[in-house]
Amino acid sequence: LREGKDKTIKTISSVAEMQARADRIRQSAKRIVLVPTMGFLHEGHLALIRSGRSLGDVLVVSIFVNPTQFGPGEDLEKYPRNMERDFALAAQESVDIVFSPDAGDLYGQGFETFVALQRLPMHLCGLSRPNHFRGVATVVAKLFNVVQPHVAVFGEKDFQQLQVVRRMVKDLNFSIAIIGHPTVREPDGLAMSSRNCYLSSPQRRSAVSLYLALQGAQQQVEKGIRKASELISSAEELIRSYADTDIDYVAVCDPETLEGVDTIHRPVLMALAVRVGKTRLIDNMILTPR
Ligand code: PAF
Q: Per-residue b/e over 159-198, b at no fewer than 16 CB within 10 Å?
Protein backbone atom coordinates (compact mmCIF):
# COMPACT_ATOMS: atom_id res chain seq x y z
CA LEU A 1 0.00 0.00 0.00
CA ARG A 2 1.20 3.50 -0.85
CA GLU A 3 -0.06 6.77 0.58
CA GLY A 4 -1.78 9.04 -1.97
CA LYS A 5 -2.84 12.66 -1.64
CA ASP A 6 -5.83 11.89 0.49
CA LYS A 7 -6.19 8.13 0.50
CA THR A 8 -4.36 4.84 0.25
CA ILE A 9 -3.69 3.36 -3.16
CA LYS A 10 -3.69 -0.40 -3.63
CA THR A 11 -1.55 -2.05 -6.25
CA ILE A 12 -2.65 -5.43 -7.55
CA SER A 13 -0.74 -7.54 -10.04
CA SER A 14 -2.58 -10.87 -9.71
CA VAL A 15 -5.50 -11.37 -12.09
CA ALA A 16 -7.32 -13.61 -9.57
CA GLU A 17 -6.89 -11.03 -6.80
CA MET A 18 -8.19 -8.20 -9.01
CA GLN A 19 -11.20 -10.25 -10.03
CA ALA A 20 -11.98 -11.20 -6.41
CA ARG A 21 -11.62 -7.57 -5.33
CA ALA A 22 -13.93 -6.42 -8.16
CA ASP A 23 -16.51 -9.02 -7.05
CA ARG A 24 -16.43 -7.62 -3.51
CA ILE A 25 -16.68 -4.01 -4.69
CA ARG A 26 -19.70 -4.89 -6.83
CA GLN A 27 -21.33 -6.75 -3.91
CA SER A 28 -21.08 -3.57 -1.87
CA ALA A 29 -23.05 -1.75 -4.61
CA LYS A 30 -20.13 0.53 -5.48
CA ARG A 31 -19.49 1.59 -9.05
CA ILE A 32 -16.13 0.74 -10.60
CA VAL A 33 -14.46 3.07 -13.12
CA LEU A 34 -11.60 1.74 -15.25
CA VAL A 35 -8.98 3.78 -17.08
CA PRO A 36 -6.98 1.29 -19.16
CA THR A 37 -3.41 2.41 -19.99
CA MET A 38 -0.07 1.03 -21.07
CA GLY A 39 1.64 3.16 -18.43
CA PHE A 40 4.33 5.84 -18.79
CA LEU A 41 1.58 8.16 -17.68
CA HIS A 42 1.44 11.72 -19.01
CA GLU A 43 -1.00 14.63 -18.70
CA GLY A 44 -3.30 12.95 -21.25
CA HIS A 45 -3.71 9.91 -19.02
CA LEU A 46 -4.06 12.11 -15.94
CA ALA A 47 -6.95 13.94 -17.63
CA LEU A 48 -8.69 10.58 -18.23
CA ILE A 49 -8.06 9.63 -14.61
CA ARG A 50 -9.41 12.94 -13.30
CA SER A 51 -12.54 12.64 -15.42
CA GLY A 52 -12.95 9.04 -14.24
CA ARG A 53 -12.90 10.13 -10.61
CA SER A 54 -16.38 11.64 -10.75
CA LEU A 55 -17.90 8.72 -12.70
CA GLY A 56 -18.01 6.16 -9.92
CA ASP A 57 -16.82 5.12 -6.46
CA VAL A 58 -13.72 3.00 -7.05
CA LEU A 59 -11.23 4.23 -9.63
CA VAL A 60 -9.00 1.56 -11.16
CA VAL A 61 -6.11 2.35 -13.52
CA SER A 62 -4.69 -0.62 -15.38
CA ILE A 63 -1.09 -0.53 -16.56
CA PHE A 64 -0.24 -3.25 -19.04
CA VAL A 65 1.90 -3.10 -22.16
CA ASN A 66 -0.17 -5.52 -24.19
CA PRO A 67 2.01 -7.72 -26.42
CA THR A 68 -0.85 -8.84 -28.69
CA GLN A 69 -1.44 -5.35 -30.06
CA PHE A 70 2.15 -4.89 -31.27
CA GLY A 71 3.17 -6.22 -34.68
CA PRO A 72 6.54 -7.71 -35.60
CA GLY A 73 9.16 -4.95 -35.82
CA GLU A 74 7.07 -2.54 -33.71
CA ASP A 75 8.24 -1.03 -30.43
CA LEU A 76 7.01 -3.60 -27.86
CA GLU A 77 10.46 -4.12 -26.28
CA LYS A 78 11.41 -0.48 -26.20
CA TYR A 79 7.95 0.87 -25.30
CA PRO A 80 8.68 3.35 -22.47
CA ARG A 81 8.03 2.05 -18.95
CA ASN A 82 8.37 3.66 -15.52
CA MET A 83 6.25 1.83 -12.94
CA GLU A 84 7.55 3.72 -9.90
CA ARG A 85 6.68 7.07 -11.43
CA ASP A 86 3.30 5.77 -12.63
CA PHE A 87 2.40 4.55 -9.12
CA ALA A 88 3.40 7.92 -7.65
CA LEU A 89 1.29 9.81 -10.22
CA ALA A 90 -1.68 7.50 -9.69
CA ALA A 91 -1.41 8.04 -5.93
CA GLN A 92 -1.37 11.81 -6.42
CA GLU A 93 -4.56 11.53 -8.47
CA SER A 94 -6.33 9.57 -5.71
CA VAL A 95 -6.58 6.41 -7.79
CA ASP A 96 -7.91 3.56 -5.63
CA ILE A 97 -6.33 0.60 -7.39
CA VAL A 98 -3.49 0.26 -9.88
CA PHE A 99 -3.86 -3.07 -11.65
CA SER A 100 -0.62 -4.12 -13.38
CA PRO A 101 -0.77 -7.76 -14.39
CA ASP A 102 2.06 -9.85 -15.85
CA ALA A 103 1.61 -10.95 -19.45
CA GLY A 104 1.97 -14.58 -18.33
CA ASP A 105 -0.85 -14.21 -15.81
CA LEU A 106 -3.25 -12.29 -18.07
CA TYR A 107 -2.58 -14.49 -21.10
CA GLY A 108 -2.43 -17.92 -19.47
CA GLN A 109 -0.78 -20.93 -21.04
CA GLY A 110 -2.62 -22.25 -24.09
CA PHE A 111 -4.32 -18.91 -24.73
CA GLU A 112 -6.11 -18.99 -28.10
CA THR A 113 -9.25 -16.84 -27.95
CA PHE A 114 -9.23 -13.43 -29.65
CA VAL A 115 -11.85 -10.75 -30.23
CA ALA A 116 -11.69 -9.55 -33.85
CA LEU A 117 -13.93 -6.96 -35.48
CA GLN A 118 -14.72 -7.34 -39.15
CA ARG A 119 -15.03 -3.83 -40.55
CA LEU A 120 -13.66 -1.10 -38.28
CA PRO A 121 -10.07 -2.41 -38.41
CA MET A 122 -10.15 -2.32 -42.24
CA HIS A 123 -9.51 1.43 -42.18
CA LEU A 124 -6.90 3.96 -40.99
CA CYS A 125 -4.31 2.41 -38.64
CA GLY A 126 -5.67 -1.10 -39.19
CA LEU A 127 -4.30 -1.07 -42.73
CA SER A 128 -0.67 -0.66 -41.71
CA ARG A 129 -1.04 -2.44 -38.35
CA PRO A 130 -2.77 -5.74 -39.13
CA ASN A 131 -3.91 -7.51 -35.93
CA HIS A 132 -3.41 -4.37 -33.84
CA PHE A 133 -7.11 -3.92 -33.15
CA ARG A 134 -7.58 -7.63 -32.58
CA GLY A 135 -4.99 -7.28 -29.81
CA VAL A 136 -6.65 -4.13 -28.44
CA ALA A 137 -10.19 -5.59 -28.47
CA THR A 138 -8.96 -8.80 -26.87
CA VAL A 139 -7.07 -7.16 -24.03
CA VAL A 140 -9.83 -4.64 -23.38
CA ALA A 141 -12.39 -7.48 -23.20
CA LYS A 142 -10.10 -9.32 -20.78
CA LEU A 143 -9.59 -6.20 -18.64
CA PHE A 144 -13.36 -5.69 -18.60
CA ASN A 145 -13.87 -9.25 -17.36
CA VAL A 146 -11.19 -8.96 -14.70
CA VAL A 147 -11.84 -5.42 -13.41
CA GLN A 148 -15.62 -5.57 -14.05
CA PRO A 149 -16.06 -1.82 -14.44
CA HIS A 150 -19.39 -0.03 -14.79
CA VAL A 151 -17.66 2.74 -16.74
CA ALA A 152 -14.42 2.85 -18.76
CA VAL A 153 -12.65 5.96 -20.06
CA PHE A 154 -10.62 6.09 -23.30
CA GLY A 155 -8.86 9.00 -25.02
CA GLU A 156 -10.14 10.35 -28.32
CA LYS A 157 -6.58 10.59 -29.65
CA ASP A 158 -6.90 6.87 -30.42
CA PHE A 159 -10.20 7.52 -32.16
CA GLN A 160 -10.30 4.24 -34.07
CA GLN A 161 -9.55 2.34 -30.85
CA LEU A 162 -12.41 4.17 -29.12
CA GLN A 163 -14.82 3.19 -31.92
CA VAL A 164 -13.56 -0.40 -31.86
CA VAL A 165 -14.20 -0.58 -28.11
CA ARG A 166 -17.65 1.00 -28.43
CA ARG A 167 -18.58 -1.49 -31.19
CA MET A 168 -17.25 -4.45 -29.22
CA VAL A 169 -19.21 -3.39 -26.13
CA LYS A 170 -22.41 -3.21 -28.19
CA ASP A 171 -21.79 -6.40 -30.14
CA LEU A 172 -20.79 -8.52 -27.13
CA ASN A 173 -23.34 -6.98 -24.73
CA PHE A 174 -20.90 -5.72 -22.14
CA SER A 175 -22.86 -3.68 -19.63
CA ILE A 176 -20.25 -0.93 -19.47
CA ALA A 177 -20.56 2.77 -20.35
CA ILE A 178 -17.69 3.87 -22.60
CA ILE A 179 -16.64 7.48 -22.15
CA GLY A 180 -14.42 9.22 -24.71
CA HIS A 181 -12.18 12.00 -23.42
CA PRO A 182 -10.93 14.85 -25.65
CA THR A 183 -7.28 14.76 -26.70
CA VAL A 184 -4.91 16.61 -24.39
CA ARG A 185 -2.32 18.68 -26.27
CA GLU A 186 1.03 20.30 -25.61
CA PRO A 187 0.96 24.14 -25.78
CA ASP A 188 1.91 24.02 -29.50
CA GLY A 189 -0.87 21.52 -30.27
CA LEU A 190 1.04 18.22 -30.39
CA ALA A 191 -1.23 15.48 -29.02
CA MET A 192 0.20 13.97 -25.83
CA SER A 193 1.50 10.44 -26.27
CA SER A 194 3.89 8.17 -24.41
CA ARG A 195 5.74 7.81 -27.73
CA ASN A 196 6.57 11.55 -27.88
CA CYS A 197 9.56 10.76 -25.65
CA TYR A 198 11.23 9.03 -28.64
CA LEU A 199 11.45 12.35 -30.54
CA SER A 200 14.74 14.28 -30.85
CA SER A 201 14.47 18.10 -30.64
CA PRO A 202 14.30 18.60 -34.44
CA GLN A 203 11.77 15.76 -34.70
CA ARG A 204 9.73 17.33 -31.91
CA ARG A 205 9.57 20.51 -34.01
CA SER A 206 8.32 18.49 -37.00
CA ALA A 207 5.77 16.61 -34.89
CA VAL A 208 3.59 19.72 -34.58
CA SER A 209 2.82 19.38 -38.31
CA LEU A 210 0.11 16.78 -37.54
CA TYR A 211 -1.89 19.26 -35.49
CA LEU A 212 -1.24 22.15 -37.89
CA ALA A 213 -2.50 20.01 -40.78
CA LEU A 214 -5.71 19.21 -38.89
CA GLN A 215 -6.21 22.83 -37.89
CA GLY A 216 -5.61 23.93 -41.50
CA ALA A 217 -8.25 21.43 -42.70
CA GLN A 218 -10.78 22.77 -40.19
CA GLN A 219 -10.10 26.32 -41.42
CA GLN A 220 -10.58 25.22 -45.05
CA VAL A 221 -13.88 23.54 -44.18
CA GLU A 222 -15.04 26.70 -42.42
CA LYS A 223 -14.16 28.67 -45.58
CA GLY A 224 -16.45 26.39 -47.58
CA ILE A 225 -14.11 23.74 -49.07
CA ARG A 226 -16.17 20.58 -49.36
CA LYS A 227 -13.93 18.17 -51.27
CA ALA A 228 -12.12 15.71 -49.04
CA SER A 229 -9.38 15.21 -51.67
CA GLU A 230 -8.53 18.93 -51.49
CA LEU A 231 -8.30 18.84 -47.71
CA ILE A 232 -6.12 15.73 -47.82
CA SER A 233 -3.73 17.22 -50.42
CA SER A 234 -3.26 20.43 -48.42
CA ALA A 235 -2.69 18.49 -45.19
CA GLU A 236 -0.15 16.22 -46.90
CA GLU A 237 1.65 19.18 -48.42
CA LEU A 238 1.91 20.89 -45.05
CA ILE A 239 3.22 17.76 -43.32
CA ARG A 240 5.78 17.09 -46.09
CA SER A 241 7.14 20.64 -45.66
CA TYR A 242 8.46 19.55 -42.24
CA ALA A 243 11.77 17.66 -41.98
CA ASP A 244 11.90 13.92 -41.37
CA THR A 245 8.16 13.29 -41.85
CA ASP A 246 6.80 10.27 -43.71
CA ILE A 247 3.02 10.06 -44.10
CA ASP A 248 1.33 6.72 -43.46
CA TYR A 249 -2.16 8.09 -44.20
CA VAL A 250 -4.29 11.20 -44.13
CA ALA A 251 -7.97 10.29 -44.36
CA VAL A 252 -11.36 11.96 -44.18
CA CYS A 253 -14.04 9.57 -43.02
CA ASP A 254 -17.33 8.97 -41.31
CA PRO A 255 -16.71 9.22 -37.55
CA GLU A 256 -18.79 6.10 -36.79
CA THR A 257 -17.98 3.64 -39.57
CA LEU A 258 -14.59 5.15 -40.53
CA GLU A 259 -15.56 4.67 -44.21
CA GLY A 260 -13.99 7.30 -46.50
CA VAL A 261 -16.06 10.40 -47.30
CA ASP A 262 -15.66 12.37 -50.58
CA THR A 263 -17.78 15.44 -49.92
CA ILE A 264 -18.28 17.14 -46.59
CA HIS A 265 -21.93 17.82 -45.76
CA ARG A 266 -21.80 17.01 -42.04
CA PRO A 267 -19.12 16.58 -39.36
CA VAL A 268 -16.39 14.19 -40.56
CA LEU A 269 -13.27 12.81 -38.98
CA MET A 270 -9.88 13.75 -40.36
CA ALA A 271 -7.38 11.20 -39.08
CA LEU A 272 -3.70 10.91 -39.81
CA ALA A 273 -0.64 8.84 -39.03
CA VAL A 274 2.83 10.16 -39.73
CA ARG A 275 6.23 8.75 -39.02
CA VAL A 276 8.52 11.44 -37.64
CA GLY A 277 11.94 9.83 -37.84
CA LYS A 278 11.15 6.31 -36.68
CA THR A 279 8.28 7.33 -34.39
CA ARG A 280 4.76 6.76 -35.68
CA LEU A 281 2.40 9.47 -34.42
CA ILE A 282 -1.36 9.68 -34.87
CA ASP A 283 -3.88 12.46 -34.43
CA ASN A 284 -7.40 13.35 -35.53
CA MET A 285 -10.01 16.08 -35.46
CA ILE A 286 -13.72 16.31 -36.19
CA LEU A 287 -14.14 18.81 -39.03
CA THR A 288 -17.45 20.61 -38.84
CA PRO A 289 -18.89 22.59 -41.77
CA ARG A 290 -20.69 25.78 -40.79
O1 PAF B 1 -4.62 3.05 -25.48
C2 PAF B 1 -3.91 2.25 -24.86
O3 PAF B 1 -3.07 2.63 -24.03
C4 PAF B 1 -4.06 0.75 -25.14
O5 PAF B 1 -4.31 0.52 -26.48
C6 PAF B 1 -5.10 0.06 -24.23
C7 PAF B 1 -6.50 0.62 -24.46
C8 PAF B 1 -4.71 0.25 -22.78
C9 PAF B 1 -5.15 -1.43 -24.55
O10 PAF B 1 -3.91 -2.03 -24.37
A: bbbbbbbebbbeeeebebebbbbebbbbeebbbbbbbbeb
